[in-house]
């Protein structure tokens, strides 16, 4: 994990990231709600979404949505490209989302939805 951590950039997700986020891979057996809801989520003032990039390629996505006037935060739609699973990228995104939550929310409740994939032992540092 430490070997690629320096190459991973976590930044706020943009509308322009739509295709790249969807290209991370099929989720939920082909019933991924993000295709229909990505843009509304990105435009929602109560949603904070991030992407993980390596060499400007999107390899991960995660977001949180705040409810109950800021008292509850729900993690949603997280995903990491199959080639990069098991390398700590999800945890890097989660740390950024938690930092944002601590700064911007008065949340007492955190609802986490973890769609964890299997690690890929064939990862090569030649990205």
TrEMBL record:
Residues of the N-acetyltransferase domain: 8-127
Alphabetized PROSITE patterns for the sequence:
GNAT
MF GO annotations: acyltransferase activity, transferring groups other than amino-acyl groups
Q: Which PANTHER family match?
A: LOC100145250 PROTEIN, N-ACETYLTRANSFERASE DOMAIN-CONTAINING PROTEIN
Q: What is the protein's name according to its record?
A: Histidine n-acetyltransferase
